[in-house]
């Protein structure tokens, strides 16, 4: 896989695209002169993605109306973000994960300085990273590792001792490329 391709995901690890499970994440951008993006850090004891940094989100449940509803529901469960306070812009490019998910990122704008509260079962901490920093291609560092016996290329973004990598970094890089973000 060429890390300079316009859209990056893990579809080369997927043997059956029809078997992908639906998931959704919320890219919550704060409405301020220097906007940021809300990210969460998963607890170290979680079975899946322990300690990783992610967007609020998760699996689409049978009761969800659509992926937007799922992303908003998950953000409310994980950080107490009231869905009524999210001005939904809409979906961006889906991300296909090697772990078997078709992840639909939903972009929304939220008021600044909301009193978000982490759900301790799902989120260890939450923070706001500056949009200018995480979208800047100079901060997108390419790496190669072996995963499940296959050499994998991925991006990593480091901000204030926080390692944003894998799927989350891939979604960020895809969106910054889609928006043709200039550094």
Task: Please explain how this structure is put together.
By secondary structure, this protein is of the alpha+beta class. It has a domain at 16-137: Nucleoside Triphosphate Pyrophosphohydrolase, CATH 3.90.79. It is 17% helix and 36% strand. It contains 3 helices and 11 strands. The protein has helices spanning 67-79, 131-135, 166-178; strands at 21-30, 36-41, 53-54, 57-59, 87-91, 95-96, 101-110, 125-130, 141-147, 150-159, 162-165. Strands 1, 4, 5, 6 and 7 form a 5-stranded mixed β-sheet that branches. Strands 3-2-8 form a 3-stranded antiparallel β-sheet. Strands 9-10-11 form a 3-stranded antiparallel β-sheet. A hairpin with a 2-residue loop joins strand 10 and strand 11. The longest helix is centred in the middle third of the chain and has 13 residues, at 67-79. It is globular and about 45 Å long. The two termini are 24 Å apart. Mean pLDDT is 87; it is low at 1-7.
């Amino acid at each position: 896989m060429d890390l300079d391709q316009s859209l990056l995901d893990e579809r080369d690890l997927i043997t059956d695209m029809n078997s992908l499970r639906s998931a959704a994440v919320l890219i919550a951008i704060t409405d301020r002169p220097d906007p940021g993006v809300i990210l969460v850090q998963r607890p170290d004891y979680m079975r899946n993605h322990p300690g990783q940094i992610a967007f609020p989100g998760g699996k689409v449940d049978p009761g969800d109306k659509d992926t937007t509803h799922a992303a908003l529901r998950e953000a409310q469960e994980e950080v107490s973000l009231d869905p009524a306070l999210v001005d939904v812009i809409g979906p961006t490019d889906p991300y296909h994960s090697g772990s078997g998910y078709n992840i639909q990122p939903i972009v929304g704008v939220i008021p600044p300085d909301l009193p978000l509260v982490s759900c301790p079962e799902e989120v260890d901490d939450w923070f706001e990273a500056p949009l200018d920093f995480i979208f800047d291609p100079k901060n997108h560092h390419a790496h190669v590792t072996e995963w499940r016996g296959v050499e994998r290329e991925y991006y990593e973004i480091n901000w204030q001792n926080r390692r944003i990598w894998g799927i989350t970094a891939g979604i960020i890089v895809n969106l910054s490329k889609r928006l043709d973000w200039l550094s």
